[in-house]
Design goal:
This protein has two domains: 3-100, Glutaredoxin (3-Layer(aba) Sandwich), CATH 3.40.30.10; 113-247, Glutathione S-transferase Yfyf (Class Pi), Chain A, domain 2 (Up-down Bundle), CATH 1.20.1050.10. 51% of the residues lie in helices and 11% in strands. It is built from ten helices and six strands, in the order ββαβαβαββααααααα. The chain has helices spanning 14-23, 34-45, 66-69, 90-100, 113-143, 147-150, 153-179, 192-206, 215-224, 228-233; strands at 3-6, 9-12, 25-30, 52-56, 79-82, 85-88. Residues 1-21 have low confidence and may be disordered. The chain binds glutathione. Glutathione (GSH) is lined by residues 30, 33-35, 63, 75-78, 89-90.
């Protein structure tokens, strides 16, 4: 490592500084977590797939361990640091990576302001709407309702409304993809908008929806499933087989 003495102290130069940044990165993650999947894809796209990635086990409360709690008071994953810079919140981590390492790996956000606006709007639009319609209104309701309450009319009507909303939302993304000028959601290059959208599409499939009536989304899913960054980030327990049918909440939409 070459250090330079300057009026503001000791500084490592160019390449070494970058290597140090990479070496000092650490990610805490859990299998099946959509925000973790998102950050891992972004890390691989930026060329940082080899950093220290510590998997926690949710059922053992691994996300509440001291090591995470000192970095993230919510005790959630993803928790990330790049040297002494701690960054939590999956979207913030992706934005940080792009800001700190704009010339490494895939350019997830375009420089051109109009294109930047399109990508960031699409990423946030996907996060806000798909998170609400697929996860909060369907998957979480099913997870948090007891078997007895699932027999009741209230649950059935909430799920019916939730599934209708999820179906309409996926149709919106089918329409957007059809209009895209390329194979990705914002045109011809893979961007942050794809990182966000893909994880939700994969989640829909994981929860039993085979995208049968959404051919463009299906092709998008099949193609991107084979992308290196996505294969490397795939939640390990998803590889063990499909969810049992009773948990495939998004199956009958
Ligand atoms: N908004 C956060 C959400 C993080 C989050 O909710 N992580 C979940 C796993 S998907 C978690 O750690 N939950 C444990 C808890 O909240 O105690 C992000 O995007 O990073």
């Amino acid at each position: 490592m070459h250090w330079r003495k300057t009026p503001t102290g000791l500084h490592a130069s160019g390449r070494e500084l970058f290597a140090m940044g990479k070496k000092d990165m650490k990610l805490y993650w859990g299998s099946g977590s959509q925000p973790c999947f998102r950050v891992m894809i972004a890390l691989h796209e930026k060329g940082f797939g080899g950093i220290d990635m510590k998997q926690i086990i949710f059922s053992e409360n691994g996300h509440k361990c001291d090591e995470i709690m000192v970095k993230n008071h919510r005790g959630q994953v993803p928790t990330f640091n790049d040297g002494d810079k701690i960054v939590n919140e999956s979207m913030a981590i992706c934005l940080y990576l792009e800001k700190a390492y704009p010339n490494e790996g895939t350019k997830l956000l375009p420089d051109d302001p109009a294109k930047f606006a399109k990508v960031i709007q699409t990423a946030i639009e996907a996060q806000e709407n798909l998170n609400m319609k697929l996860l909060i209104n369907c998957v979480y309701i099913a997870w948090t309702t007891s078997a007895a309450d699932k027999e009741g009319e209230e649950y059935k009507s909430r799920m019916k409304a939730g599934l209708e909303g999820a179906k309409k939302e996926l149709e919106i993304w089918e329409g957007k993809l059809k209009k895209s000028a390329g194979e990705f959601i914002c045109g011809e290059t893979f961007t942050l908008a794809d990182v966000v959208l893909f994880v939700f599409v994969a989640t829909a499939v994981r929860f039993g929806n085979n995208l049968a009536n959404l051919p463009t989304l299906r092709t998008y899913y099949d193609t991107l499933s084979n992308r290196d960054s996505i294969k490397a980030s795939w939640p390990p327990h998803w590889k063990d087989g499909d969810l049992e049918q009773s948990k495939q909440v998004l199956r009958d939409m």
